[in-house]
Write a structure and sequence with these properties.
The protein has about 500 residues and is α+β, with helices and mostly antiparallel strands. It contains 19 helices and eleven strands. The strands form two sheets. A six-stranded mixed β-sheet has the order 1-2-6-3-5-4, sandwiched between helices. Helix 3 packs antiparallel against helix 18, helix 8 packs parallel to helix 12 and helix 13 crosses helix 16.
């Protein structure tokens, strides 16, 4: 997964050259180190700034080191739901009359919490239909005070583009691109919604998330088996939770629990603000201090203490659904910045990185056994130890078990005869494959924010390629033997339920 963020270094060397700075690829990391400015506010917020380019525009990303991995079974889906809720506004934004709306919000929450409790403890209670009607009436009354999409309207009017957010197992991020002259507007709006978010339309949005889950997972065989695959892969660690939450708990996710989750985890010490583009960084720093430094700091809940126990034996499962067959094979491995994680970025590229990769040539072109084959290093997150995964979509005439054996055969061959040429080719591709996708302030902001938020130091990005170039054949052989073995393996096979078993 890190390759999504790291090949930007080549692009930085192009930036340097185009700006009159003579640089080769080795100089690019030094360029970042010399030009990225990191500040830490008194309350613990980290600020990253990079002044670059000629167009007076800025890319902003506000990221929090919190995701579905920080949830319990009680709060599964809270981080994703909060991503939605933080677009709803504050007591001053998104409302026509907050004093009147506030009264309704309290009534809505009281009815909603009572409904959730009854549905959990006494689902046949005769009060439930009455309370559901009451909730709908209260929501209809509240709608008279709501201004929908308040941030989007303001930002669009001020020239903003790309206003969005995302939640992963590791982090939550909010981002937008604006003219440089709108820096203070952005700081005012974003700091305000972090201080006092109003969870308006909570129950409506919770229902929308359930619908989103049904569309994304309920109708997809691949989505269903991957969710099961992670649940089998992580029996202890919360990486097993789906980001969106479980189907059974989303409709009962308590607003009180979600609010408490926000105040527990969305705190200055877990927050990184990244601003990339044409700017006076001293001025930027002053504006950020003005609007963000007085956000209250709260105790950091710390990292997740649960560690996934060693497997000491293969886990296999079958899943039946009305879908074409699908094969997933995964192995546990260390996360970044372990050198083994870098190694598996190269292994992933050699095995399944395009049409010249080993698995593609063998299984797609030569044997014609699969329609597609791919791999993922770093699933499902990077804050904690994770998985190296290989996926394959069998052609109708081949059963998944045959393909599985072919994959193991290719892995064995790779460990025995990987060449220096293949390693160099993989590194070169990792270094350059996403240059065209990151030629922007947004791409650089994404890179810096990711490494700072997930790993606590954006400078890992600057040294990424240098570490890759230090990896040799013996390193790869040793890592494959240590991790990609049958004692450390999870295998999931999706069968078409429309066919005879």
């Amino acid at each position: 997964m890190k390759r999504i963020y790291a090949a930007i270094i080549l692009f930085v060397s192009l930036i340097c050259t185009s700006s009159g700075y003579s640089a080769n690829i080795e100089d690019a990391g030094e360029y970042l180190k010399k030009n990225v400015i990191r500040k830490r506010l008194k309350n613990g917020i980290t600020l990253l700034m990079l002044n670059r380019g000629f167009s007076p525009t800025l890319a902003f990303e506000t990221a929090f080191r919190v995701g579905s991995a920080d949830e319990s079974y009680r709060t599964a889906g809270a981080a994703h739901l909060l991503e939605h809720m933080l677009f709803k506004g504050t007591d001053r934004l998104g409302t026509k009359d907050y004093l009147k709306e506030k009264v309704l919000l309290k009534e809505i929450e009281a009815v909603g919490e009572t409904l959730d409790r009854l549905k959990t403890e006494d689902p046949d209670n005769s009060l439930i239909p009455q309370l559901e009607k009451k909730l709908k009436k209260l929501q209809a009354r509240e709608r008279k005070y709501i201004i929908t999409s308040p941030y989007d309207k303001i930002y669009t009017a001020e020239g903003g583009v790309g206003f969005n957010a995302s939640t992963s197992r590791d982090k939550t991020g909010y981002y937008i691109r604006l003219p440089s002259s709108k820096l203070e507007l952005w700081a005012k709006l974003e700091s305000e919604r972090l201080r006092n978010p109003v969870l308006r339309e909570y129950y409506l949005e919770r229902s929308n998330v359930l619908e989103e889950r049904l569309m994304r997972y309920g109708s997809s065989g691949e989505g269903r088996i991957f969710e099961r695959f992670l649940a089998y892969s992580f029996i202890a660690h919360p990486y097993r939770h789906p980001i969106i939450g479980w189907k059974s708990n989303i409709p009962l996710l308590s607003i009180k629990d979600v609010r408490e989750f926000y105040y527990r985890y969305y705190i200055p010490s877990r927050m990184t603000i990244t601003i990339v583009g044409k700017q006076d960084t001293d001025h930027t720093y002053g504006i950020i201090r003005k609007y963000f430094e007085d956000i209250e700091s709260r105790p950091d809940p710390g990292e997740i203490p649960v560690k996934e126990p060693p497997m000491n034996g293969e886990i296999r499962f079958k899943y039946y659904y009305e879908s074409n067959p699908y094969l997933i094979i995964g192995w546990h491995k260390p996360t970044f910045p372990s050198k083994d994680d870098y190694i598996f970025d190269i292994v992933s590229e050699v095995l399944a990185g395009g049409k010249s990769s080993r698995l593609y040539r063998s299984l797609v072109i030569e044997k014609k056994m699969v329609a597609s084959v791919s791999s993922w290093n770093g699933s499902p997150g990077a804050r904690y130890n994770n998985l190296f995964i290989i996926y394959a979509v069998p052609k109708r005439s081949y059963n998944p078990e045959k393909i599985e054996k072919e994959i193991y055969r290719e892995l064995k061959k790779l460990s025995l005869n990987i060449s220096d040429h293949e390693i160099k080719k993989a590194v070169n591709k990792l270094e350059s494959e996403i240059v065209f996708g990151l030629d922007s302030n947004r791409g650089l902001a994404r890179l810096l924010s990711y490494y700072q938020t997930i790993f606590g130091n954006w400078e890992y990005a600057a040294d990424y390629i240098k570490v890759l170039k230090s990896i040799g054949r013996d390193d790869i052989k040793k890592a494959i033997g240590k991790y990609l073995n049958d004692r450390n393996r999870i295998v999931g096979i999706l069968y078409d339920s429309r066919k005879k078993k």
